[in-house]
Amino acid sequence: MAAQFARETGTKGEFTRQTNRFTDRITADGAGGRVPEAGRYRLIVSLACPWAHRAIIVRRLLGLEDAISLGVVDPIRDERGWRFTLDEGDRDPVLGIGFLSEAYLRTDPAYEGRVTVPSLVDTETGTVVTNDYPRITLDLETEWTAHHRPGAPDLYPPHLRPEIDAVAADLFRDVNNGVYRCGFASSQEAYEQAYDALFSRLDVLTERLAGQRYLVGDRITEADVRFFTTLVRFDAVYHNHFKCNRNKLTENPVLWAYARDLFQTPGFGDTVDFDQIKRHYYATHEQLNPSRIVPKGPDLSGWTTPHGREALGA
């Protein structure tokens, strides 16, 4: 089987995600030369992308909409990369560019990797500050506190950070990136290893969530945000398109209730766009879906049904 991303495929057919090229940080103490500044930075996202969706949710939960503007690319990514064809004139109205790759090449003219979202761009220079998606949300939570809305939740409380970090590491390896390791595997062996790791981890998380409402502590944290963006795409995309088909999310009573609980929390479900999610995956991954036909299903009505998890505490 031909690999979807040849540069990110190992010798045994395993998908190995590229490292993040731009890793500058914006910190409250200005240690890296940048400080949080309302209106200075623009978060570029795809509503289809789970990695970008994390940043969208955190930005919404913390009330950073006025401090950090949002640019949304077209869910259909072609050989030229992420495009701003949802905007008038096919150009981002703030950055004035037609493709996110323009900001990448302005930052590093020799860049040859995949252009990814989320990317945080400096609107004054037009250069990319960071595309380091795991660090972006943590910095929004810990370095941008002066711009948080009154009463904003603490998604990364200091006393829970070691546990959040441990859970997040398992989530990334086996679940968040695990579904991609299933979908983009180019050998049976690599696929089955990823599949087994994915569902073994989901079984562990199911057991964990059977007795508590959230992944860590008694509140929504960064860990829940990271899990949600995979779960909300599971039945619509990963179960079929990425061959993660031991069972659907809706066939796991614990995880299905947990996902609905989060979906019905402001900042989660209201940031989900199932149409863009499906069109991106099914119309972009030509190696997996040459016809580019986008499925009509699944039925989405269940997402708003009662979840019954209040009894586990909040």
Automatic annotation (TrEMBL):
It is an enzyme of class 1 (oxidoreductase). Gene3D superfamilies: 1.20.1050.10, Glutaredoxin. GO terms for molecular function: oxidoreductase activity. Residues 1-20, 294-314 are annotated as: Disordered. The keyword Iron does not apply. Pfam families: GST_C_2, GST_N_2. PROSITE patterns: GST_CTER. Its EC number is 1.8.5.-. Residues 131-281 form the GST C-terminal domain. Keywords: Oxidoreductase. This is Glutathione S-transferase family protein.
